[in-house]
């Protein structure tokens, strides 16, 4: 009995130690999160002290779940428009992405331009292609580096036809639909000629919207090169002669031209730290399991 009681006491002590450990771990985690949020808030407040040229960065693929989503870019644009005195600069380094997200940002730039005489200037870093160029074309002026990649005014959908593969493997595909074309993009189903024509019409219509937006933004600065809207990309140096850009400048060059200093104010929306952590963990899990993280998004891409 005495031995049994001693063992119970030891077990209770061990249990109490583990509870204390996990509580400390829990509170340490939340203290770190709170410190990160406070640090980011402080950085944003400090950034608002320079009210000359406001910068909004558009980096990476443009889609609703990325840092370059329309919601985040538009919030940054509006803050920069209200907070900067001289100009708003879009610092672009993106291969493109969602046509819907690109259209939303394009429309917001045009709306802001109609409400005042403050310039909105796009600067292309390594790449400003497809949906990223769609956005840039709404700006008053576009600049790039000599070796930047600019253009790619086109629309793409890509997939695989695997119906022959499952036949060889002896796999039976079971899909139930209401609507003759509901499974049109299923890679394990053949595509009829009528479906092919319909999908090409969707791509052509999106391409026309892209072309019209670029023409509205760039006007008579565009050259009459027949390959301008073919999906080709050009270097920043070549893009000037095509009318796709207005010259070769960096963000620092523009800030110095307007204020005499390269100092700018960054209005880019960084997002919630917890959201960033959870998204990163979700991507890691999806990659490990072989899951398409962007499943359910539009398959049409401006890139």
UniProtKB/TrEMBL annotation:
Any one biological process term the GO annotation gives: proteolysis
Keyword Transmembrane helix appears in the UniProt entry: yes
Matches recorded under Gene3D superfamilies: 2-enoyl-CoA Hydratase, Chain A, domain 1 (3.90.226.10), 6.20.330.10
A Pfam family: Peptidase_S49
Highest taxon listed in the record's lineage: Bacteria
InterPro entries cross-referenced by the UniProt entry: ClpP/crotonase-like_dom_sf, Pept_S49_SppA, Peptidase_S49, S49_SppA_C
Segments crossing the lipid bilayer: 20-41
GO molecular function: serine-type peptidase activity
EC number: 3.4.21.-
Keyword Magnesium set for record: no
Xref: CDD domains: S49_Sppa_N_C (cd07023)
Residue stretches making up the Peptidase S49 domain: 117-260
Name of the protein: Signal peptide peptidase SppA
